[in-house]
Specification:
The protein is mainly alpha-helical and about 375 residues long. The protein contains 15 helices and five strands. The protein has two domains: about 130 residues, DNA polymerase, domain 1 (Orthogonal Bundle); about 230 residues, Intergrase catalytic core (hpI Integrase, Chain A, Orthogonal Bundle). Helix 4 packs parallel to helix 6, helix 8 runs antiparallel to helix 10 and helix 8 packs across helix 13. Bound molecules: zinc ion. The site of zinc ion has 9 residues, from helix 10. This is Tyr recombinase domain-containing protein.
C-alpha cells in the first residue's frame, strides 16, 4: 500500500488558501482549468460528469460523503453497480463501464486537490474480482417456445366464472409477451388506446418509448397477427378481454360472455364473422391489463393497471398450474421464446428485430448461441 492510497480521502486538504490568492494566481488558476478540460475528449468528460452524478446520488441515498469519499464508500458503489441488471437480466454495468465510473470519481477528487479514493487496494481488488466473475457465463431466463405457451394457456379455466376473468387477461398478457415480444414493463404500460384493430393484419400495438431505449421517443408498432387457428390467435385474446372489461360491472353479462366463449371459434373477425369488439371500444386511455380481484364466488376488474412484477409472478403461477417447473423462467422467457422460436423456424435476425425492436443483431446472436447451438453451425453440413 502506498502512502498515497493509505491517506486516500481521509480529509480535505485546506488548499486553496482563498484569502492569500491574488488576482494573478486566480487568473492562472482559470487558465489551468481551461487547459485541463482540453486534455479530456468531450466524450470522456461527459462520461466523467455522468459518473460523478451517479456516485453523488448513491452517496446521498445512503447518507455517505461523496467529496472526499472514503475508499469503503467507493467499494460499496462498485458493489451496487455490479448487481444492477437490465431488462434482459444482464448486468447493467460492464466491467469497462465500472472502471470508467471510477475514473470519473478519481478525476473529480484529483481536480479538487484531494487524494484519489479509487486507487485503494480494496477498490482495485474488488474490480479485479468482478472482472474474473463476469468472465464466466451469465445466467439468463430460459425461453418458452410455442408449445410451452399453448400448454400454459390450455391449463387455464377460460369459460368458468369467476376464474375465466383473470384467465382472459392472463392469456392476453402471455400473447403480448410471446407474439408481441414485449418486455413486462411495456406490456403493463399499454392502454386501450395503444391497440388498433387492423382488418388485414390483426392488432397493431403502439409500444411507448421503452426504458431500454431512452433516445427513442417515437412509439414502435408491433403486430399481433391473426392466428391460423383460434387457439393460436392473439387478436382473439384482445377481443375477449376488452369485451369482458366492458361487461365487468355486470356479473350476469360477464358470465354470459364467458360461457359463450367458444375457444375453437374466432371472435376477432379473422374468419369473416362479426368481431366481438370494435375500434370504438379501444378509444380510452385506461390501462389495458387491469388488476383483477377474485374470490371463490365473484371477480372484479380494478381501474388500475397491473405492474410488470405482477405479470412476472402471474406467469410463474400459471406455469406451476400447468404442471411446469417455473424456477428458471420469468416474463422475459416469452420474449426470448419469441426470438428462439422464430429463429428455429428460419426467421433471420433482421426479421426478428422488426418485432423485438433490438437495435442490433448482437442480442439475437446471444439467443442463438445460448438456445440454438445448431443455428448456422457447420456440424449440420457433415452429412450425418
Ligand atoms: Zn382470432
Amino acid at each position: 500500500m502506498t502512502p498515497h492510497t493509505k491517506l486516500a480521502a481521509l480529509s480535505a486538504p485546506s488548499w486553496p488558501p482563498e484569502p492569500e490568492i491574488d488576482d494573478e494566481l486566480r487568473e492562472l488558476e482559470a487558465v489551468s482549468r481551461g487547459l485541463e478540460t482540453h486534455t479530456l475528449s468531450a466524450n470522456t468528460r461527459r462520461a466523467y460528469v455522468k459518473a460523478w452524478r451517479s456516485f453523488e446520488t448513491f452517496c446521498a441515498v445512503h447518507g455517505l460523503d461523496a467529496l472526499p469519499a472514503h475508499p469503503e464508500t467507493v467499494r460499496w458503489h462498485v458493489a451496487w453497480m455490479s448487481v444492477q441488471t437490465d431488462e434482459h437480466g444482464l448486468p447493467r454495468f460492464s466491467v469497462a463501464t465500472i472502471r470508467q465510473r471510477l475514473a470519473g470519481i478519481a478525476e473529480k477528487h484529483l481536480r479538487e486537490g484531494l487524494l484519489d479514493p479509487t486507487g485503494h487496494r480494496g477498490v482495485t481488488g474488488l474490480v479485479r474480482g468482478l472482472a474474473k466473475l463476469r468472465a464466466t457465463r451469465a445466467v439468463r431466463k430460459r425461453p418458452l417456445l410455442l408449445d410451452d405457451v399453448l400448454r400454459i394457456i390450455r391449463a387455464m379455466d377460460h369459460d368458468v366464472y369467476p376464474a375465466g376473468v383473470s384467465a382472459a387477461r392472463d392469456e392476453l398478457a402471455i400473447w403480448l409477451g410471446f407474439a408481441g415480444a414485449l418486455r413486462r414493463g411495456e406490456a403493463a404500460a399499454l392502454s386501450l388506446k395503444s391497440m388498433e384493430l387492423n382488418r388485414l393484419d390483426g392488432v397493431h400495438i403502439h409500444v411507448g418509448a421503452s426504458k431500454a431505449d431512452q433516445d427513442n421517443s417515437q412509439p414502435d408498432v408491433v403486430v399481433l397477427p391473426f392466428g391460423g387457428s383460434p387457439r393460436t390467435c392473439a387478436p382473439c385474446a384482445v377481443h375477449r378481454w376488452v369485451a369482458l372489461m366492458g361487461a365487468c360491472a355486470d356479473r350476469r353479462s360477464t358470465m354470459r360472455l364467458l360461457y359463450g366463449y367458444q375457444l375453437d371459434t374466432h371472435v376477432c373477425g379473422a374468419d369473416g364473422s362479426t368481431p366481438l369488439i370494435s375500434s370504438a371500444d379501444l378509444d380510452s386511455a385506461t390501462p389495458l391489463l387491469r388488476a383483477t380481484y377474485r374470490n371463490r364466488r365473484s371477480a372484479r376488474i380494478h381501474a388500475q393497471g397491473v405492474t410488470g412484477d405482477a405479470l412476472h409472478t402471474m406467469l410463474l403461477t400459471r406455469m406451476s398450474e400447468a404442471g411446469m417447473n417455473p424456477s428458471a423462467y420469468g416474463f422475459h422467457s416469452l420474449r426470448s421464446g419469441f426470438v428462439t422460436q422464430a429463429r428455429r423456424n428460419g426467421a433471420d435476425p433482421s426479421d426478428v428485430r422488426r418485432q423485438t425492436r433490438h437495435k442490433s443483431d448482437r442480442m439475437v446472436e446471444i439467443y442463438d448461441r445460448e438456445w440454438l447451438p445448431l443455428q448456422r453451425n457447420a456440424v449440420t453440413s457433415l452429412g450425418l
